[in-house]
């Protein structure tokens, strides 16, 4: 008996994850303007920080999707180094909290412990250490594509103007809309908007994850196999792709603060600036079935954190027939 056909719009990490999860039960086609290996600025996945930093939420479904995704990447890190997924120690700082009451994932990650207050950098009110995951998107995305092609998933490079156009081109009744920012048009969703980020890639042998949240958003994310790390970060409503050179010094100052000066010798004239546009959505992620379409977008900068959990939810919604279910 032949499998039912599903077309996924979008080949970012969410679309690829959906293809991976669905390919055992469906005949899957991915249709997208940008495909793994492309490095244009019109899609977010190649430029993401891609660290598994669990998002704080009280929503049980959002937590489940994060757990499912973490389990997938953790298994991958332990089974195939060529995937670009690696286990790292994480130091997580806060400057607006003094306890871990909102750190719901403390029992999920390994080696979790609270940092003594005497060991915190100046201005930091609370900190924890644990073990988590970092992904190199420019390795992982092509790796996933190769795996999917071996599983008979078809890739079509095509930008579509509507879901009905994708359906007409592929003959698929079932559509997964994983189009990111494109969902503003394809799903007529005015809550969708791009969120601009600016980071830097620097050559370094620093092999730890570090993050500060609260009054600022600062991080260090090593890139497996690259000889360097992504340091940031900046969020902005700007829609241009011009590098703001004035931000480099500010990023470097903040990063040195949380790494005890590990990047003090970085030459700002030798860094690689990175501009990317995260697929944001006011009101949070949308994972919802609408007739024969399952929408899966709106995770902003947490695409890698939710990806395989979103995919598992998409599979459940597709297999649920005509019932309407939403997140």
TrEMBL record:
Alphabetically ordered keywords of this record: FAD, Flavoprotein, Oxidoreductase
The protein's required cofactors: FAD
Keyword Flavoprotein: yes
Positions annotated to bind FAD: 160
Gene3D superfamilies noted in UniProt: D-Amino Acid Oxidase, subunit A, domain 2, NAD(P)-binding Rossmann-like Domain
Keyword Flavoprotein in annotation: yes
Amino acids binding D-dopa: 219, 278, 301
Domain of life: Eukaryota
A GO term from the CC aspect: cytoplasm
Molecular function (Gene Ontology), one example: FAD binding
FAD dependent oxidoreductase domain segment(s): 5-312
GO biological process, one term: D-amino acid catabolic process
One Pfam family matching this protein: DAO
Family classification: Belongs to the DAMOX/DASOX family.
Protein name: FAD dependent oxidoreductase domain-containing protein
């Amino acid at each position: 008996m032949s499998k039912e056909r599903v077309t996924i719009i979008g080949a970012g990490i969410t679309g690829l994850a959906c293809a991976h999860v669905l390919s055992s039960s469906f005949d899957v086609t991915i249709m997208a303007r940008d495909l793994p290996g492309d490095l244009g600025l019109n899609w977010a996945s190649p430029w993401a920080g891609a660290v598994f930093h669990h998002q704080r939420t009280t929503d049980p479904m959002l937590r489940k999707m994060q757990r499912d995704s973490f389990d997938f990447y953790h298994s991958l890190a332990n089974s195939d180094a060529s995937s670009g997924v690696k286990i790292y120690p994480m130091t997580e700082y806060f400057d607006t909290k003094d306890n871990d009451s909102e750190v719901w994932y403390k029992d999920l990650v390994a080696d979790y412990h609270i940092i003594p207050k005497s060991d915190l950098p100046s201005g930091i009110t609370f900190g924890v250490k644990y073990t988590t995951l970092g992904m190199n998107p420019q390795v992982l995305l092509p790796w996933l594509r190769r795996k999917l092609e071996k599983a008979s998933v078809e890739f079509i490079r095509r930008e579509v103007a509507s879901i009905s156009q994708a359906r007409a081109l592929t003959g698929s009744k079932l559509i997964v809309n994983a189009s990111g920012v494109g969902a503003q048009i394809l799903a007529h969703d005015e809550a969708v908007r791009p969120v601009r980020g600016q980071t830097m890639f620097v050559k370094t042998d620093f092999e730890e994850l570090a993050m500060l949240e609260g009054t600022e958003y600062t991080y260090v994310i090593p890139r497996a196999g690259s000889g360097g790390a992504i340091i940031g970060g900046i969020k902005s409503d700007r829609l241009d792709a011009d590098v703001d050179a004035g931000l480099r010094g500010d990023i470097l100052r903040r990063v040195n603060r949380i790494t005890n000066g590990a990047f003090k010798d970085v030459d700002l004239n030798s860094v690689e600036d990175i501009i990317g546009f995260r697929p944001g959505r006011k009101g949070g992620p949308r994972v919802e079935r609408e007739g024969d379409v399952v929408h899966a977008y709106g995770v902003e900068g947490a695409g890698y954190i939710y990806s395989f959990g979103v995919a598992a939810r998409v599979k459940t919604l597709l297999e649920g027939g005509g019932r309407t279910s939403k997140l």
